[in-house]
Automatic annotation (TrEMBL):
InterPro entries: Uncharacterised_YpbF_TM. The chain crosses the membrane at residues 38-58, 78-97. Keywords: Membrane, Transmembrane, Transmembrane helix. This is DUF2663 family protein. It comes from Pullulanibacillus pueri.
């Protein structure tokens, strides 16, 4: 499928700089969406591991509450120890992905706002304002990139 932005560039309706910025914002949006999916998956894994760990703690093996909750009993249970190590690993990955997502989101928003603020300059040589509206509509519809408002 030929992208409308590529078609506009080939037809000479947009400048090389505008084409570069629009492709860059599409790339950053794609990267942001990928990190969002990773973050969601890791969040789900953290919740599942927490549920399994809680089930392992309170599954009724201990007869008294103090036996069940003692740290020595928890660490003697190899399954619980493995779940705890897996939880710590996945949680660490989640924190890393969360920070990367925030960085990628800031980069994307910064570029998106720059394009919005410089829209008059970027589209100044285009005489057909309908093509600008169509390009923005295509970006909104196909990539969920809003270049109408900040």
């Amino acid at each position: 499928m030929v992208d409308y932005i590529d078609q506009m560039y080939r037809n000479g309706e947009i400048s090389e700089h505008t084409y570069y910025l629009l492709n860059k914002v599409k790339e950053r949006k794609r990267k942001k969406d990928n990190y969002k999916k990773i973050l969601y998956s890791l969040s789900l894994m953290v919740l599942i591991l927490c549920a399994v760990a809680l089930y392992t703690l309170f599954d009724g093996q201990g007869t008294q509450a103090e036996e069940t909750i003692s740290i020595a009993n928890m660490l003697q249970n190899t399954f619980f120890t493995r779940i705890l190590v897996a939880f710590l690993g996945v949680f660490t990955l989640w924190r890393f992905a969360s920070k990367k997502y925030e960085e990628v989101d800031k980069e994307y928003e910064k570029l998106r706002i720059e394009i919005i603020e410089r829209s008059q300059e970027l589209w100044s040589h285009t005489y057909d304002k309908d093509s600008v509206v169509q390009a923005y509509h295509t970006l909104k519809q196909d990539y969920d990139i809003n270049l109408y408002h900040k």
